[in-house]
Specification:
The complex is a heterodimer of chains A (198) and B (434). With 198 residues, chain A is an alpha+beta fold. Chain A contains seven helices and four strands. In chain A, strands 2-1-3-4 form a four-stranded mixed sheet, covered by helices on one side. Chain A is elongated. Chain B folds into three domains: 209 residues, NADH-ubiquinone oxidoreductase 51kDa subunit (Rossmann fold), CATH 3.40.50; 94 residues, Ubiquitin-like (UB roll), CATH 3.10.20; 98 residues, NADH-ubiquinone oxidoreductase 51kDa subunit, iron-sulphur binding domain (de novo design (two linked rop proteins)). Classes of the chains: A alpha+beta (198), B alpha/beta (434).
């Protein structure tokens, strides 16, 4: 179970420097930890507590409040099926039933091969294309049962790897500069992609 | 079209690579900021007051008045609420993905007007592409000189941070959002006495404004508050983005002039919602997010006017309108909304935490055919304990308005479709076959 890597420690320190109070960086750093390990490990959270001078319980107590953070392992693909009103009116219950049958797991469950975790979620603000779902928070709309099967096959075969990074990777664009208003600009050297894939 | 008002916040959306700096600059981005930086900050606030720009997040409070309430102090913050989570609202999601530079420009104008020390844009965590586009635009705007030190040579300096949320409806409530931005659980703060304008982020005076509210500012500065106020009617000025979903033929976001068109226009006009699917009959609609009490077909001719909808006992709220046709089980629809609120309750206040759970259980058993004849009265009694009197706007028994919003769908469904509940209970099954 992993503490943050050297690179991620540096990313965490850069985030801390953006805020007047360091604890504000907690949630962004938790996202980095989840990107690193796919979920929030006890060691990872303890390490973040050290970086922010917090008690590990404060880190866990904050993380556990938020739906996007997992304190147990999940699949490489988190399939989040919306069943809120606009989707309900357009067949979301049937889609979720189909997803359970196709993946062989109930909401909250992970397939034996560790590829897919299924969850039922609240509105993801993609209602113009209901019923919809997200995979690792990349959105797919107007999903019928055939579309769902095709999507699962494409994901399992790695055909959507460019569009759907592994679970935990949220924002692939790194901020390039630190705070500049008060003084000369410290550039953040990182050499990572600065534009999102189209 | 219903009115000939040109779009304001969606003017650039649909142009190639609309989210990039080059595309935005080709279409006038940052011209409003250049003009603003030549103005006195107080003049900008005056233009926003003249525009009578109502906040586009849900509460509909005048943005200029809010800015005027900001307490004095050396350190003041501007926080942008991009945590769009009200079910069936998907407009800010689109604005962040499609025109992030317009948001940044609005943030810069607002920060200059109120004298903010630093600005934070809180983006709903689930919006991965929105976060990428906002961050990319932020990088471009820093490199262009529109953010940072001595912005566009004006002497004004500001830093902006794009901050990801992590999944919690309650963080759309502005004080819960501030708690979350401070790295804590999203628990709303008790207010009064301290509103964010007096004691906000890190206890400093803070303005919290919505993404769409910011997106209007470049246009208002460029064209003047009077030109904005000339659109719409009465207090409902300008254009507004409406998220139309459910059983319409053309679910999408539509930017239309406020107050002049009606709900009928929005749902049925061929250039807007396009009518009900399969030309079914409309049974009911949600006029402003699932927190809002429902309307029936007899209210279709009401104008999209914040005050008119308020007087009729509901709200325009977050601008999301959901159509339900005559194949819809209203018990199921109301139960789903109730389940949402129960799940999203932060747990601080008993009426919301416990009451939401009871309502969820009772609605569930009715829908699944195990309802009791006494359940309707029980539902209304529990609702009355959460929002005494069951009026609108609701009486508060809790720190924030999440709890008192829970009864909206249940009381609407019972008021409009009482027979449907009785059929569920008498037949021991859902008559719509689920």
């Amino acid at each position: 179970m992993a503490r943050l890597t050297a690179e991620n420690i540096q990313r965490a320190r850069q985030l801390i420097a953006l805020y007047p109070q360091s604890r504000s960086a907690l949630i962004p750093i938790l996202h980095i930890a989840q990107e690193q390990d796919g979920w929030l490990t006890p060691d990872g959270m303890a390490h973040i507590a050290e970086l922010l001078d917090l008690d590990p319980a404060e880190v866990y107590g904050t993380a556990s409040f938020y739906d996007m953070f997992f304190t147990h392992p999940v699949g490489r693909h988190l399939v989040s099926v919306c069943t809120n009103l606009a989707c309900l009116l357009n067949g979301a219950d049937e889609l979720l039933e189909h997803a359970q049958a196709r993946l062989g797991v109930a909401p909250g469950g992970t397939t034996a091969d560790g590829e897919f975790t299924l969850e039922e979620v609240e509105c993801i603000a993609f209602c113009g294309a209901a019923p919809c779902l997200a995979v690792n928070w990349r959105f797919f709309g107007n999903i019928g049962t055939d579309d769902f099967d095709r999507l699962v096959e494409d994901l399992a075969a790695g055909r959507l790897a460019d569009d759907v990074p592994p679970h935990g990777t949220l924002n692939r664009v790194r901020r390039r500069v630190g705070l500049m208003a008060a003084g000369p600009a410290p550039a953040l050297a990182d050499g990572t992609a600065s534009e999102p894939p189209s | 079209m219903i009115t000939d008002a040109a779009p304001i916040v969606t003017a650039r959306i649909g142009s190639p690579l609309s989210w990039t700096l080059k595309s935005a600059l080709d279409r006038g981005a940052y011209e409003g900021l250049r003009k603003a930086l030549t103005m006195d900050p107080a003049e900008i606030t005056q233009e926003v007051l003249t525009a009578n720009l109502l906040g586009r997040g849900g509460a509909g409070f005048e943005a200029g008045r809010k800015w005027g309430m900001l307490a004095k102090g050396d350190t003041k913050y501007l926080v942008i609420n991009g945590d769009e989570s009200e079910p069936c609202t998907f407009k800010d999601h689109m604005l962040m993905e499609e025109d992030p530079h317009q948001i940044l420009e609005g943030v810069l104008i607002c920060a200059y007007a109120i004298g903010a020390s630093q600005a934070f844009i809180f983006v709903r965590g689930e919006f991965a592409l929105g976060l990428e586009r906002m961050t990319s635009a932020l990088n471009e705007a820093y490199a262009f000189g529109a953010i940072g030190r001595n912005i566009l040579g004006s002497g004004f300096s500001l830093d902006i941070v794009v901050h990801p949320g992590a999944g919690a409806y309650i963080c759309g409530e502005e004080t819960a959002l501030l708690e979350s931005l401070e790295g804590k659980r999203g628990y709303p703060r008790d207010k009064p006495p301290w509103f964010p304008a007096v004691k906000g982020l890190y206890s400093a005076p803070t303005i919290v404004n919505n993404v769409e509210t910011m997106s209007n500012l470049p246009w208002i500065v460029t064209n003047g508050g009077a030109a904005f106020a000339a659109l719409g009617l009465g207090r409902s000025t300008g254009t507004r983005l409406f998220s139309v979903s459910g059983h319409v033929k053309r679910p999408a976001n539509y930017e239309i002039e406020m107050a002049k068109p009606t709900f009928r226009d929005l749902l049925f006009d061929p250039s807007l919602g396009g009518g009900i699917r399969n030309d079914n009959a409309l049974k009911a609609f949600v006029p402003g997010g699932v927190s809002a009490p429902w309307f029936g077909p007899d209210q279709l001719d009401m104008a999209l006017d914040q005050d008119a909808v308020g007087k009729a006992g509901s709200m325009l709220g977050s601008g999301s309108v959901v159509a339900m046709d005559d194949t819809t089980c209203m018990v199921r629809a109301a139960w789903r909304i109730t389940r949402f609120f129960h799940r999203e309750s932060c747990g601080q206040c008993t009426p919301c935490r416990e009451g939401g759970g009871w309502l969820d259980k009772i609605m569930r058993r009715i829908e699944l055919g195990q309802g009791r004849e006494s359940d309707l009265e029980l539902l209304l009694d529990v609702c009355d304990n959460i929002a005494p009197g069951l009026g609108w706007p609701p009486q508060k028994t809790t720190i924030c308005v999440l709890g008192p919003s829970i009864p909206s769908s249940i009381t609407s469904a019972i008021r409009m479709f009482r027979d449907e509940f009785l059929v569920h209970i008498k037949e021991g099954a859902c008559p719509f076959g689920r």
